[in-house]
Amino acid sequence: MLDLRKIGAYISKLRKDRDLTQLELADQLNVSHQAVSKWERGDSLPDIGTLPQLARLFGKTVDDILNAGEHTEVREHRHLGTIVEEIAENKPEHVAERVNAGELELEELVEVAPFVKASALHKVTERLDSSVLKLDVILSLAPFLGTDTLDELVRQVEGSEILWEAITGLAPFVSSDTLNRLVDQSIDGSLEVHRLVEIAPFLGREQVDRLVQHVEEGGLSWHLVQELAPFISKETLNRLVDRVVDGTIDANRIVSLAPFLGREQVDRLILEAEEGSVSWNVVNQLAPFISRETLGRLADRVVDGTIDANRIISLAPFLGRENLEKLIAGVEVEHLSPDLLASLAPFIDQGTLSRMVTNLLNKVK
What we know:
By secondary structure, this protein is mainly α. It has 24 helices and no strands. It has helices at residues 4-17, 22-29, 33-41, 50-57, 62-66, 80-88, 92-100, 106-112, 118-125, 135-141, 147-157, 164-170, 176-186, 193-199, 205-216, 222-228, 234-245, 251-255, 263-274, 280-286, 292-303, 316-330, 338-344, 350-364. The longest helix has 15 residues, at 316-330. It is elongated.
């Protein structure tokens, strides 16, 4: 692997040996002095067109520069200069031919890839033999290739088994169509959830929704739905709510998706709980996500006697002063119990609490 700090220190030494300032070197190479400063600090490398100029200016080879002046016998990269010079001279086909013939090592092409234009790298890779261009090489080149080029290279190796580690590595760089296809080909019931979660940000909504459907059909764990929640479409979330309402999905499962449900979806679940289609426990768990309007309606239903006051206790922290006052004022004395009073006490003012205590004592008398 290229050591940018060592290369930078070597460029700095060559410049100082010639008694040049960074600005003077920059002028001779037609680059900015900031660029020279970045090279010498090891923050970047000269681009592929500048490297041969730099080498000629100091009477060195490109290999000398990239190996930081180390002697031939200890050099790790013996052919980097050749690759750089061929590409700089717009002869990518020569690089491909020599790689195919075994004269240049693919690992060295990977080393220079970070400072080669995607278009030039495409011209090299499109001429490489399939026997040479293995999946591990494609993975190494993925950050530097254009999407179309990478899609085509992946298509060439799809006949062999592509491991999930490879799919994870390719996900940020391939097109959504290619990624979706790889997922469809590789998914099965033994798949570890974290693999899909790692690539979720790069999947299209349609693919995420298909994965959720696969879970609904029993092909994958429900835990996957929880992990994919931020990426699930509104339409699929609506369908999951429908399945809770018709009883085909346990209501407690939908609670884990609460932060991603829309107001309409939460309100619908609350309405179903009021009508008895869904367990009231769901209301308690969805409390932080219930709209103010729905909370107001629930308070009204306690006041008119259609909902037991004790059911609303768990919602007290979310009711707000107006709804609490409405609730307290509407609860008839006969429905007032010590437990209800104790539960509401932290959320009501002292005057109201004193009045309720008095009413409760009068009731006991």
